Structure formats: structure tokens, C-alpha cells
BolA family transcriptional regulator (Arenimonas donghaensis DSM 18148 = HO3-R19), 79 residues
Amino acid sequence: MNPQIIQELIETGLPGASARVQGDDGVHFEATVVCEAFAGKLPLARHRMVYATLGDRMGGEIHALALRTLTPEEANRTV
């Protein structure tokens, strides 16, 4: 698995999302995902939304995925 494929899966599964994925060993990754659909949701719910876009790949092809999930407003505040 490579970061580009994970980015595409997340952005396809969460319409309007923007994902930045990093990882160089093929199984451990870090992602920052910005999506309006995260508004009003707790971090665990946001993470579940992202994991749902990856399906069975989680725990298999993707051993670990560290997530930072933000709404566009939250992302603008951190810049």
C-alpha cells in the first residue's frame, strides 16, 4: 500500500475531503484529513468515518494509521 492510494480512498469515500498521507514502510501511515462532514463530531466518530473509507485494508494492508481529523475551520485556525 502506498500513501497516494490511501489518500485517494479517503477522498473518494468522504466527498469534499482533503487528505495528506505520509508513510514510507508500506504498512504504517500518518494522515491529516480535512472534511466539512466532521463538524459537530467527536474525534472517535471522525476516525471511524475515515476507517470506513479504507474498509478491510485496515488491519491488513494498512497495519497502522495515525489520524489528525479537522474541519476546514479548524484547519484554518492551525495555519
Q: What stands out?
A: The radius of gyration is 12 Å. The domain at 3-78 is CATH 3.30.300.90 (GMP Synthetase; Chain A, domain 3). The chain has one domain: 3-78. The beta strands are 18-22, 28-34, 64-70.
